[in-house]
Amino acid sequence: MFELGSHLQHYAWGSATAIPEFLGREADGAPWAEAWFGAHPLAPASTPDGTGLDTVIAVDPEQMLGADVSRAFGGQLPFLLKVIAAERPLSLQVHPTREHAAESFAAESAAGIDLHSPLRSYRDANHKPEMLIALTPFTALCGFRTPRRAAVILDGLGTALTDRLHTLLVDNPTAHGMRAAFRTLVSASLRPASEAVDAVVEACRARIAAGSSPSPRIDRSVSLLAEHHPGDPGVVAALLLNPVSLQRGEAMYVPAGALHAYLHGTGLEVMATSDNVLRAGLTQKRVDADEVLQCVSVTAAPPLRVAPERQNSTSIAYYAPVDDFELAITELSDPVAASARTHPIPGSGPRIVLGLEGTATLETTTGSHALRAGQAVFVPAADGPLRARGHGSFAQASVP
């Protein structure tokens, strides 16, 4: 096993303190949004000699990944582990299926669009299902409500825009009606003016003040989004979506096609190795409404919460319905007198282990490593079973 250095992303919505504190580094006043631990070629984690993890794996994929994983995923690490710290809301976004991503990536590449160009929507040919495990209280929007429930929330706001959306959903309380309502907000030809959005925001605030809201939480979300993105139609789209609140240790799975926006909090994200993000609004980055409308699922569905399963006396696992990743949390509480006792850690194949609290000593047949909070190691498949001892907790991303 060997230590990994994270690849930091300083997006405007990030926290200035959460990730520096987690990594044990000095804050610099800039927003630290994400710390990536993985092998995505655009932002690979670094190994002790400065080489990217993607390069290390490419030298001997069977040794690093194991024959089965290497064969199944074309010699690439199939998962990416992140720490995400949202101080402000993220963009309203959706992720494509693997088939759509491969087709669109090929088309943009054939057109000669540079991988780093702001005009590019697809950074790779992979899908990007993801699972978030909250490290602090975490709020989000995810997935569409039923048309009838959304109509109830729109009813009574009394603006021209919400009346139009309400009529669409009442006249056609199906996925087709919801698609029409969402299209009304994000399509370039139908997109409402900022004044129409502002009127909806004021109506939501008035409804909260009057104590008459059928969903005070979603009205507060509309108000919050408007503070950061005034006049953006994505603010109004929140009225169509499910609000989500996660406490520490609770998890949510976001499949391809699920419209979502993270609002606030710090969490672990594990996902397929991809950076394909299609934005519908609430961002200064490129919005690609046409691609969003091609990929989005408007079928009503509650947020997909993932309950952890107990693996043994020290570890629980969060399983997502995909072949790319799973995530386990191990908590060791051995007193000093028992610090020599080691515990088996479930899992095999390539693993990235990230310290969360305290200190744990990881052991494989090839050696040991003292892992502190904020540190990460890559455990190649060839290293075999993993054991740990100490007093602390860590996360392990691996392949099912």
Report what the structure shows:
Strand 13 and strand 14 (315-319) form a beta hairpin. The protein has helices at residues 18-23, 53-59, 61-65, 67-72, 98-110, 147-154, 160-171, 175-186, 194-210, 216-228, 234-237, 289-295; strands at 2-4, 7-9, 34-37, 79-86, 92-94, 130-134, 138-144, 241-246, 251-254, 260-272, 278-281, 304-306, 309-310, 315-319, 326-333, 343-345, 351-364, 367-372, 376-379, 386-398. The protein is globular. The chain is of the alpha+beta class and 400 residues long. Strands 1, 13, 14, 15, 16, 17, 18, 19 and 20 form a 9-stranded antiparallel sheet that branches. Strands 2, 3, 4, 6, 7, 8, 9, 10 and 12 form a 9-stranded antiparallel sheet that branches. It has a two-stranded antiparallel ribbon with strand order 5-11. It is built from 12 helices and 20 strands.
Write a short abstract of this structure.
Helices cover 28% and strands 30% of the residues.
Record the SSE blueprint.
Layout: E1 2-4, E2 7-9, H1 18-23, E3 34-37, H2 53-59, H3 61-65, H4 67-72, E4 79-86, E5 92-94, H5 98-110, E6 130-134, E7 138-144, H6 147-154, H7 160-171, H8 175-186, H9 194-210, H10 216-228, H11 234-237, E8 241-246, E9 251-254, E10 260-272, E11 278-281, H12 289-295, E12 304-306, E13 309-310, E14 315-319, E15 326-333, E16 343-345, E17 351-364, E18 367-372, E19 376-379, E20 386-398
Antiparallel strand pairs: 1-19, 2-3, 3-4, 4-10, 5-11, 6-9, 6-10, 7-8, 7-10, 9-12, 13-14, 14-15, 15-20, 16-20, 17-18, 17-19, 17-20
Helix pairs in contact: 6-7, 7-8, 9-10
* Structural domain tally: 3
Shape by Cα distribution: globular
Please tally the β strands and state the result: 20
Considering DSSP H and I runs of 4 or more, what fraction of the residues is helical?
25-40%
- Radius of gyration of CA atoms, rounded to a whole number: 22 Å
Low-pLDDT ranges: none
Distance between the termini: 20 Å
* Major β-sheet annotation: 9 strands, antiparallel
CATH class of the largest domain: Mainly Beta
